[in-house]
Amino acid sequence: MNERPSLVASAPITIQDAGEAGLVTSLLSISKTTRAFLSLLLTEIDLHPGQDQLLHRLVPGQPVSVSALADQLAVRPSTVSKMLDRLIEKQLVNRSSNATDARRTMVMLTPAGEAARDNVRGLWDRLETELAGALPEADRQPLLQALQQIDGLLTAKLRRLR
What is the pTM (predicted TM-score) of this model? Predict the structure, then answer.
């Protein structure tokens, strides 16, 4: 039986469960379960977590440097290089030297990579639809705004530490 993963009701984390660090504990739990759920979805298109984000950052027909990709993904260039090795094996991206600066490595989607990128967007949209459908409409926008605010705060703090 090859069922598609779908969201199932589970017990939410409460402040009592989370203790004093309710926000951090909740965010860690959400991150972990989102990544695990997305991992299951990505197996449908033969990708691993993180590869979806990398493909999504690439714009068809526009080469981008490995260092710029690393900045966009908030990871080290060596992490991007390892991910690219796997995506090159699958013929989803090409890597080449920059025409004006041979020290810079450039990356570009292949036609198969463009299709994979579209498939990633489809999976993300499917997950978005399921999540949004499980929440009361009045709660969606305030929740999204709060999550974006937390993301901005954490991103800014992380940049200062790196």
Answer: 0.78
